[in-house]
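Journal club side-thread
Mid-discussion, someone asked how the predicted structure for our own chain would compare to the paper's figures. Pasting it here so we can look after the session.
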Amino acid sequence: MRAQAQVAPRRIQPLKLIQYALLTTGGFIMIFPYLWMVSTSFKASGTWYNISLIPEAFSVEHYQRLLSSSLLPRWYLNTIIVATVATASVVFFSSLAGFVFAKYSFPGREIMFTLILATIMIPTEMLVIPWYVGVAGLGWIDSIQGILLPSMLTAFGVFVMRQFMAGIPDEMLDAGRIDGVSEFGLFWRICLPLARPAVAVVAIFTFLGHWNDFLWPLIVTNSDNMQTLQVGLSRLSSLETGADWGGTMSGAALASIPMLIVFLIFQKQIVRGMKLTGLKG
């Protein structure tokens, strides 16, 4: 009987150990504030400044108070509506614009695309005044549509979709035209399904960006009922709970749940989409 060869155990090089140790330490430093926030949300009143991650006694009083006596459910609903509608709008219009810039030649195409990219360099703080004037002229102050109007299309989305769709072979579109597919059908039935990685990138970043948006909703909303989650949470400590950091941390923990879900489900699509998008020219 032939003796089975024994495979020597693979040794981890000292340099690898150092890298793993540094990455683990850096990861813990970055995640510690979040863990402390969640821990504090379950701590009883008066024990918030205890830096321990394990509460002395678990308490859900802060969550009960937020859900029963505050406007947190309404803020949650407003934010879900804004983030969902804005994401759908950005994905559709950015994909359509990216398709046009990538697959059609027309006078001024490069100039128009350059001007769109140039808007990325303009700080948001410089845009809120013309946004506010436009929304006020439409009578949309303190409304969902007022929050949504400036975010229906983004230069980032147009750039990502244009870069990705530029790599789709033109022969596929020519074959579709021979089969009688309309120009919009070429976009909807051929390019858009092939651009799913880029669509995932635009959708995820748009959703997370609007979920965390603070400045514009703060400016355009007046009543408490129309505020989004981030604006409402910023006022919890002064309007609802005073110095009750447990309530503030509970609200922040609840606000982070959708972002964690989106990241855990779509993290592979984010990496794949960014890689493929960066290689298209």
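Post-session note: The domain at 66-279 is CATH 1.10.3720.10 (MetI-like fold).
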